[in-house]
Design goal:
With 572 residues, the chain is α/β, with parallel strands linked by helices. It has 16 helices and 23 strands. The longest helix is centred in the middle third of the chain and has 18 residues.
Length: 572
């Protein structure tokens, strides 16, 4: 009897190898290969050569006869249908999904343990249960654990009241053929119903009444077997279903352990087929690996319609829901939530969350306008420049790409003449939000110069622009959207790239072509020297910048800074 053939599959990327290796040559992960039995692929009989293939079709060289479609149809023959989006009860979640939940879509949501994935989906499911049939499949917790968590999160939570007011309303389109069911006193086959509403009229009771008023349309299934989950989906036919989580579900026909590449791939594929066939909106929770990516094969992200990532600092209360892929809306949209005692609460104006107090200004701070998808967010940047304690200076960035910071520091030293090569530089964004787009470059440069000279930047000024390697300030996208957000929050001035002409929005626009010009406009005079230095009796003139408007070459400013009476000697 022949020995059964086995292969080794990487649990990180899904690559297959005929023998074991300590390190996957495809993704570089160590000790990630697991021995599995290969799945026999379907084979089709084909002629031995292309000539025989063409002969069987009756095709001669250079000819192409007309054919008839067997199952395909023309694109023009498909009936037009408006997109029916259902409100989730959270405006922030609706924004990230592109305007609401699309019936029949498959959404994958990932994030670190304890970040709030199950909390968000449980609160969303409880709101939708007032007007839709909902199935919550828990593969990690028992029914009693889910009920205890629901009592803690949902009692007195105002989120469901908003869903109750939006009953039957769609964000866009018509109701179409979606199934809007009235509450029915029915029980899940597993006995996992959380609790019925005790409204005196028998109608829908909001959670603001102080009791766990989850509708009888909320069904709970604590199960890890894929076949049992599929049977329940086909029998109950819910409008909305949650799978928590995909890494703990297993398919008994496969010999690999739950969470392996083969299990995740097959389980997701089977759930997708049922969701599309029965028009079930399916939210799937995914675990993450050590490097922050969603665990499992990359094909998992290709199968689903939308990929959401829940992120945030475990030491901060706010959470950010980011769209990484969306077939029904824009990518890189974000929704901001705040973790409170009874769950997650959406933040309608995140700019106030990531801005410091403008009444108490210090040197090294400035405000930039970052765009996440179509949402502008004002973020305060803080920079600290101090003498290096050791021979090699330290560069530290929180919320900003460290490579981007290194590049801007090089531009400031080479093109502007600010001596930073022997100074430690620390940069952070208020609130810990991560700003990745280049439009924040100008704010980073101004914050560093302000911290270096111990000078204040006007707290009513925003800075927008990308910094080039030649010291230029390059144009950015969505400038009008950024300026509208700044004007709405009471800012008076905006330093923008030269060449862009936005409409009049009540702001004083200052176009600049070089970083040097932006420094002159953002830090104009010695009257804004550090209050601590003025209170100490220091002469404010020594905190002034050299007269740059009278200097034609940046190298002369560098000579002034290096001189014995220059600012470098005075400050440090």
């Amino acid at each position: 009897m022949a020995k059964p053939r086995t292969i080794y599959v990487c649990q990180e990327c899904g690559a297959e190898f005929p023998q074991y290796f300590g390190r996957c040559t495809n993704c570089g992960a160590w000790n990630s290969l697991v021995e599995t039995e290969p799945v026999e692929a379907l084979t089709t009989t084909r002629p031995a050569s292309a000539v025989a293939w063409n002969r069987n079709l009756g095709v001669t060289q250079g000819e192409k006869p007309g054919g008839q479609p067997r199952a395909s149809i023309r694109l023009s023959e498909i009936a037009e249908a408006s997109v029916t989006r259902i409100s989730s009860g959270y405006e922030e979640l609706n924004r990230v999904l592109g305007g609401g939940i699309v019936p029949g879509s498959l959404v994958l949501i990932g994030g670190e343990p304890g970040i709030g994935k199950s909390t968000l989906l449980l609160q969303t499911a409880s709101g939708l249960a007032q007007r839709l049939r909902v199935l919550y499949v828990s593969a990690e917790e028992s029914g009693q654990q889910i009920k205890l968590r629901a009592q803690r999160l949902l009692d007195g939570h105002p989120h469901v009241e908003a869903s109750e007011a939006a009953e039957g309303e769609y964000v866009e389109g018509q109701a179409g053929d979606s199934r809007l069911r009235s509450p029915q006193a029915s029980r899940s086959p597993s006995g996992g119903r959380v609790r019925e509403s005790n409204s005196p009229q028998g109608g829908e009771a909001g959670l603001g009444e102080g009791s766990l008023a989850v509708e009888p349309n909320f069904f709970l299934l604590p199960e890890t077997d894929l076949e049992a989950i599929l049977r329940e989906l086909e029998s109950l036919k819910p409008d909305f279903a949650v799978i928590d989580s995909i890494q703990t579900i297993y398919f008994s026909s496969l010999t690999s352990a739950p969470g392996s590449v083969a299990q995740v791939r097959e389980c997701t594929s089977a759930l997708m087929q049922v969701a599309k066939r029965e028009n079930i909106t399916l939210f799937v929770v995914g675990h993450v690996t050590k490097d922050g990516s969603i665990a499992g094969p990359r094909v998992l992200e290709h199968l689903v319609d939308t990929v959401l990532f829940f992120e945030g600092d475990r030491f901060a209360s706010h959470r950010i829901l980011r769209s990484m892929k969306n077939r029904f809306g824009a990518t890189h949209e974000i929704g901001v939530f705040e973790m409170i005692a009874n769950g997650l609460r959406e933040v309608s104006n995140p700019s106030e969350l990531f801005m410091g107090s403008r009444d108490e200004t210090v040197s090294g701070t400035c405000t930039v306008v970052a765009c996440e998808g179509t949402r502008p967010i004002l973020v305060e940047l803080q920079a600290l420049v101090s003498p290096a304690s050791f021979g090699s200076p330290r560069r530290s960035a929180t919320g900003i790409d460290s490579n981007r910071l290194q590049q801007i520091l090089a531009v400031l030293e080479k093109r502007v003449g600010v001596p930073l090569s022997k100074l430690d530089t620390y940069l952070a964004s208020v609130g810990g939000i991560r700003v990745e787009e280049p439009a924040a470059d100008l704010g980073v440069a101004i914050a560093v110069v302000s911290g270096f000279r111990d000078r204040l930047v006007d707290p009513h000024t925003v800075l927008i622009g990308e910094v080039g390697l030649g010291g230029q300030v390059r144009q950015v996208s969505q400038l009008e959207l950024r300026l509208r957000e700044a004007a709405k929050l009471g800012f008076k001035r905006a330093i923008i790239p030269k060449g862009q002409n936005p409409p009049e929005l009540g702001l004083t626009l200052i176009p600049v072509a070089r970083v040097l010009d932006a420094i002159l406009e953002a830090i104009p005079s010695a009257s804004t020297a550090s209050p601590m230095a003025l209170e100490a009796g220091e002469d404010s003139s020594k905190f002034s910048l050299p007269p740059l408007d009278a200097v034609d070459d940046e190298e002369e400013w560098d000579d002034d800074l290096a001189s014995p009476g220059g600012a470098e000697t005075d400050l440090f």
